[in-house]
């Protein structure tokens, strides 16, 4: 019985690790959609805004303003509406964690 419980516990831990890895990968997939304008991992070419290392609260506020229409945009208002508020928070967390 003890041996079975150890295997069960090990299985639960492995499943949790796989789930956590999938979560990280999903955020990277969402963030990759930003690469066309904001560069790989948020490091943009000149002329576009880099997102890497920026304050996540400021980035999230900008996205929420785009999403609500408070901040005018050519495309960001459309893109931001494609994500939930939680997804946007995860995306800005990803960019904030990147080195400039």
TrEMBL record:
Has UniProt tagged this entry with the keyword Heme? yes
Question: Do you know which InterPro entries this protein is assigned to?
Answer: Cyt_c-like_dom, Cyt_c-like_dom_sf, Cytochrome_c_Oxidase_Subunit
Q: Name one Pfam family in it.
A: Cytochrome_CBB3
Record's keyword terms, sorted = Electron transport, Heme, Iron, Metal-binding, Signal, Transport
Which Gene3D superfamilies does this chain map to?
Cytochrome c-like domain (1.10.760.10)
Q: Does the keyword Heme belong to this entry?
A: yes
Q: What positions belong to coiled-coil segments?
A: none
Q: Where is the Cytochrome c domain?
A: 14-99
Cross-referenced PROSITE patterns: CYTC
The signal peptide stretch is 1-22
What protein name does the entry list? Cytochrome c553
Species the sequence originates in? Hydrogenophaga palleronii
């Amino acid at each position: 019985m003890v041996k079975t419980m150890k295997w069960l516990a090990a299985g639960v831990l492995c499943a949790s690790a796989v789930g956590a890895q999938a979560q990280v990968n999903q955020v990277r997939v969402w963030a990759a959609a930003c690469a066309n304008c904001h560069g790989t991992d948020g490091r943009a070419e000149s002329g576009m805004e880099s997102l890497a290392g920026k304050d996540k609260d400021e980035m999230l506020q900008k996205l929420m303003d785009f999403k609500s229409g408070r901040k005018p945009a050519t495309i960001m208002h459309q893109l931001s509406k494609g994500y939930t508020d939680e997804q946007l928070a995860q995306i800005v967390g990803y960019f904030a964690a990147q080195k400039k």
